[in-house]
């Protein structure tokens, strides 16, 4: 009884703080700009943590860490390092400052709005909002899946109750406080995630006789089920530098790292940056955050095979990857299990809040305001957005309570489609004047076309590799199509790019320019 009381107390305190922040932030959500972007005044630490916590959800902690740790052993840590250096560090360096400057010049609050204004096309904006809407919803529903396994292990509470309570609380603070409440909560949730993952790694390795003993035990397991015939059955593969399947490992690194560059809810964080200092600090902090959280998750998952037990197998003898991490944690002390539950809840709620805010703002600003209610006032837009946040959360709960079998696959598919469609035209659009409307349409078609056709035909066996290939293909397609199709109006494009040439005065401590 006492043990259960500790876990429940941790949850109650956590939920009370989240809702309190929502109420505290309501004054900062009185118009559309404040509700969606926090008035473009979000400081470095909040932005960095908002980026990191939106990046890593229960899907990474429970699903991906278990699955890829089992397949690649300790080499799965490369995925975490890729997430840190490509998905965070490079994303901030390449996209951060330019995104903030150009989206302010265009007065764009969402990614489809950026496409509409940057490429002077209302159709691109509406099509972009449809793609974002269709592929963000399944991602939202998949977040609950990782939670269900953990709650089943830690509490004897029905999974349905957990989903509804989590959805209600996330809904309250997003609807009341908008982006600012989301960013403040992300900061607290991020700190919980940092402390939690470190505590869990130490506890799990101690349970295996310490780090060195765990590595030794892992090196004695032969990987019989690897995809590379030449390596099959070799001992020590699970502790080797590139693991038992380097090619597929690379596919996972590309999808999970480069994908963030084209996901609307990730790039959205750059729109809200406050100033130059926020870019520099945010770059360092979000990279550090990703090294600890993502690197830590995959490193922990790499030891999954040491916890081989009947609990991680399905009835047909196949491995239930989502059960591996809960199985690893089931032997921990109760206080640590409580911390883990709050850690995964934090990861999930922060991603969920980011997704529903992105979905509702896109649907309101890019679809309804552009095509149905063109004269919608600022106040009406705010009301519609809040109603849609509630609608999205209800929809994700309905999907999560009766998940179609393809929901789990749709997680990888939604990343592939969104990043495949948006990454290239967004990144090139910030740098190159020559990118054309036709090239953006081509990228939309490649992103959605390859992903959806692969779902039905299956010409690329792994949806993860399909997503990675789609992204790389769009990076080639956009410049090629731009070269072959008519240029945009030169005067229009030049006017947009003037935003980078405006003169600003800075202190000597920031620049040595005379």
Description:
- The protein is mainly α and 514 residues long.
- The chain is 73% helix and 0% strand.
- It is globular and about 65 Å long.
- It starts with a helix and ends in a 17-residue tail after the last helix.
- 54% of the residues are buried.
Provide a compact summary of the structure.
By secondary structure, the protein is mainly alpha-helical. The chain is 73% helix and 0% strand.
Number of strands: 0
H/E series: HHHHHHHHHHHHHHHHHHH
Flag low-confidence runs.
Answer: none
Amino- and carboxy-terminal Cα gap: 69 Å
Number of helical stretches of at least 4 residues:
19
Structural class: mainly alpha
Strand content: under 5%
Shape type: globular
Mean pLDDT: 83
Biggest sheet character: none
Rg of Cα set: 23 Å
Portion in helices: over 70%
Brief descriptors of the model:
514 residues, mainly alpha
List the helices and strands and how they pair.
Blueprint lengths: L1 H23 L7 H6 L6 H12 L2 H15 L4 H30 L4 H8 L3 H33 L4 H49 L3 H9 L26 H13 L5 H8 L4 H26 L22 H6 L4 H39 L5 H24 L5 H25 L5 H21 L5 H22 L5 H8 L17
Helix pairs in contact: 1-8, 1-14, 3-8, 3-11, 3-12, 3-14, 4-7, 4-12, 4-14, 5-10, 5-12, 6-7, 6-16, 7-8, 7-14, 7-15, 7-16, 8-12, 8-14, 8-15, 10-18, 11-14, 14-15, 16-17, 16-18, 17-18
